Here is the input.
Amino acid sequence: MALHTIGRRVFDMLDANIRFIKHRQLDVSAPQRENMLLEIRESTRSEYVLKPLEIRRAAYTGS
Here is the structure.
């Protein structure tokens, strides 16, 4: 998958989650909202950045 495609998917996912949280902002306090955004960013980074890097590294090193 091309890097720009992965970047676009990550951006779309973050954007959708942030819009969802902002929509629910009356139900969630500011600190809770910040925690939710941090969790989304970390899970997105893990799923779309770190995992593919680990897979490529394993393929390159043959492990």
